[in-house]
Amino acid sequence: MKTESKPEGTARHTPREDVSPAVIKRLPRYFRYLRELLKNDILRISSGELSRLMHVTASQIRQDLNCFGGFGQQGYGYNVKYLYGKISDILGVTQNYGAIIIGAGNLGSALASSPIFVKRGVNLEALFDTSPDVIGKNINGYTVLPMDSLEDYLAENSISIAVLTMPKEYVKETAERLAALGVKGLWNFASTEIELDDPSVVVQNVHMGDSLMTLCYELTKKEEDSEDMTNE
Fold it and tell me: What class, spelled out in words, does domain 16-91 have in CATH?
């Protein structure tokens, strides 16, 4: 087991609004890899070692982390526990945001039954649906609540995030309803994008089909490359 050193000093960092979207998208990867390192009792790692693990250049790692203060120490590398804690803070993991799921069908039920929330410091509090066949059903310890109780529930509970897993024809109206009730983060899995007029609401549109099509593209490319090599 590698030994742990004292936390490094923090350098001047880039304001959040000036950090590029590409850097922000890479932060969850750092979070995941650092968490695995801690699980394996690895408490110190160099940028080169982290580079080989993540398949990202050491220079890119240093540039990314320098946006938030650097956190490294020349000749030592990175204190894994300290860096994991700092990235957790940056990503809001330590905020313990409360979340609800709207739509308790197959996808909503799968998300509620997965560890995706607790592993990222988000507290899933409730599920909602409009179907009489689903309301009252127990899903991983959560009793599905009716949508007509949403206003009362949000008035009594601190909820920052709503996960939208309902049919696309209802998602815009539901998103506007949630925004009006003070929910500030929407994680949208409906097959349509949401755009709201309220600038205080953050929307993350997730298109799982896009990921599948990217995979199909890469498979096709490899097949074409293989055919080209065969024909040479």
Answer: mainly alpha
Whole-prediction pTM value? 0.84
What is the share, in percent, of the chain residues with pLDDT greater than 70? 88
Q: What span, in angstroms and rounded, lies between the C-alpha atoms of 5 and 169?
A: 54
Query: Domain locations in the chain?
Result: 16-91, 96-210
**pLDDT per residue over 88-133, tens digit each?**
999 999 999 999 999 999 999 999 999 999 999 999 999 999 999 9
Check pLDDT > 70 for residue 204.
yes
CATH architecture under which domain 96-210 falls = 3-Layer(aba) Sandwich (3.40)
**pLDDT at residue 75, as a whole number:** 65
